[in-house]
Structure formats: structure tokens, C-alpha cells
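2024-03-11 09:14:02 INFO queue: dequeued item RNF14 isoform 12, len=153
2024-03-11 09:14:02 INFO validating residues
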Amino acid sequence: MSSEDREAQEDELLALASIYDGDEFRKAESVQGGETRIYLDLPQNFKIFVSEKLMDLRNEYLQADEANKRLLDQRYGKRVIQKALEEMESKEWLEKNSKSCPCCGTPIEKLDGCNKMTCTGCMQYFCWICMGSLSRANPYKHFNDPGSPCFNR
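2024-03-11 09:14:37 INFO prediction written
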């Protein structure tokens, strides 16, 4: 196992340990390849939703009448339904109101100011207009070059 894989696995373990208490979460070191095995003691009816399933659940809930909404609340729990609604609302808002960093994909919202942007995720400079990466040494060259489609913008 590479050191990068090991570091990524340790990050996942820290995240899991912060979510689950000691009774639910256990880890065991494996001799083979230095792997760490994770054990979660979860209730039998525990469900994990990926975003595609959350979207399906949200759509089903929004189209349901009051009786079917109560059934969905009983089947999945009000918190899961609320999470599905909020997740999809956030995702739709981001799609409408932000652009993704061309380097790392972090959503970026521009409120005002110039078109030279700095990603908060990876600190890359990029142009808001064309989404091209900008030079670290002289990021404004892109806007001052008459040959650039973003000249004087």
C-alpha cells in the first residue's frame, strides 16, 4: 500500500471516527499489506444513500400525495427525507449560481470584482470568463494581452 493510499485511508478513518461513537465504530490493523479494516455495528434497517438515490427519493417525495409522504417518512425517516430535499436543493443552487474550478472542481461563486479568481480549494488562479488557468507570476497578463479573448474585461 502506497503512502498516499495509507494517508487517504487514515483520513477516512478519522472522518468515520468523528461520526460514529466507540460502540459503533471499530478498526483493526491487518498484517497483509498494512491495511486497516473498518467495522461498523449499525442497525439492521440502516441505509446508505448515494446522491442518485437521494435524487430519486426526493422526486418520489415531491410527487407523492399526503398519504404516500407519510409512508415515505415512516420507511426512511423524516431526517433522511429532509436531507434528500436539502441536498438536491443545494446541488441545484450550486449548478445555477457557481462555476467549478478548472483545476480541482471546487464550486466558486462570483459576487463582484474583477475576473481573476482564486480557488479557495487549491489556490489556483483562473479566469472567470473563459475558465482558463492563469499564470502565478503574472495572472493579469491574460487580461492585458490584445490576443486574449478576455482582453480588457
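2024-03-11 09:14:37 INFO annotate: The longest helix spans residues 78-97.
2024-03-11 09:14:38 INFO item closed
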